[in-house]
Each structure stands twice: as structure tokens, then as C-alpha cells.
């Protein structure tokens, strides 16, 4: 029996995004100074030894949430082909994308559109989040799903 979830969505949500998220978790936990310097160089501590303990803890907690995010996609979405479950999780991920983008406001509005000035973390925090959000919106709208009940506006609001 074939999956009702088209391959592009499966590849992105089950492999590409979890791998990318685990990479972010690695940097947030294991390369904390580099993570902060790439996020905002002017406010980053000089080195790991000057990193406040509270910042180190918060970054490790962030890494843990990145891991949870990846595990939800990998385990929950792989456990079912039920579009209702996929839609419910994808809705949550889309809301998380919007919150993630909002968290960047203190960096200035340029961060949202000056892609030529982005460093590697900006590509992850903005560019990749744009890609993820666009993928989720297409999925929720039913683009490419090919099922009458999965297409159109009803697919966006019908989570049940």
C-alpha cells in the first residue's frame, strides 16, 4: 500500500529537516561560542571561558528542544500515514517556524531579507525556516496530495 504522503514531503520532513535540526542542536550544545558569534557577533562573549553559565544552560536547553523537534518528525510522522496526524504535527511546526522567525526581531529587520549578507546560521535561522514554512503551508493547503479531501482551504483548517 502506497503512502498518501508524497515523496517530497516525506523526504523533507522525515530526513532533511531532522538532520538539519540535529546539526543546529550540535552547534547550540557543543559549539556554543561559535553559535552565539554567528547569531550576533557584537554581543557574543570573547570565548567559551567567558560564556555565562546561564547562557550555556539556555543553549543546551535549546539544543534539547531541537532534538525533540527532530524526534517528533522522525518518530511521530514515521509511525503513521494518517493525514490528520501529519496535519496536526505540521501545524505545530508551522507555528514554531513563525515563532522562530519572530525571535530574530532584535537582530533587525534586515535579517529577514538581506540574504546576500547571511552567514551560515542566518541561512539556517531564516532561509531554511522560510523553506520549512513554505513546505508546511503547501502541505496544509493540500498541494500535491492529490486527494479531494486533502486539497483546498478545508485541508488547512480541518485537523480533527
UniProtKB/TrEMBL annotation:
InterPro entries in the record: DUF7704
TM regions (residue ranges): 12-29, 49-71, 83-103, 123-143
Record key words, sorted: Membrane, Transmembrane, Transmembrane helix
DUF7704 domain span: 4-143
Domain of life assignment: Eukaryota
A Pfam match: DUF7704
PANTHER family: CHROMOSOME 1, WHOLE GENOME SHOTGUN SEQUENCE (PTHR37019), EXPERA DOMAIN-CONTAINING PROTEIN (PTHR37019:SF1)
Entry protein name: DUF7704 domain-containing protein
Amino acid at each position: 500500500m502506497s503512502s498518501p504522503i508524497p515523496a517530497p514531503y516525506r523526504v523533507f520532513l522525515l530526513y532533511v529537516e531532522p538532520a538539519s535540526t540535529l546539526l543546529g542542536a550540535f552547534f547550540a550544545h557543543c559549539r556554543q561560542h561559535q553559535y552565539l558569534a554567528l547569531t550576533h557577533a557584537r554581543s557574543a562573549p570573547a570565548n567559551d571561558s567567558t560564556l555565562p553559565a546561564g547562557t550555556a544552560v539556555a543553549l543546551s536547553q535549546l539544543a534539547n528542544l531541537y532534538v525533540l523537534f527532530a524526534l517528533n518528525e522522525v518518530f511521530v510522522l514515521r509511525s503513521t500515514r494518517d493525514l490528520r496526524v501529519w496535519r496536526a504535527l505540521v501545524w505545530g511546526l508551522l507555528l514554531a517556524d513563525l515563532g522562530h522567525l519572530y525571535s530574530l526581531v532584535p537582530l533587525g529587520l534586515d535579517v529577514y531579507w538581506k540574504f546576500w549578507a547571511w552567514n551560515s546560521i542566518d541561512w539556517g535561522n531564516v532561509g531554511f525556516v522560510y523553506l520549512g514554512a513554505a513546505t508546511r503551508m503547501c502541505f496544509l493547503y493540500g498541494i500535491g496530495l492529490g486527494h479531494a479531501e486533502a486539497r483546498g482551504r478545508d485541508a488547512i483548517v480541518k485537523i480533527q
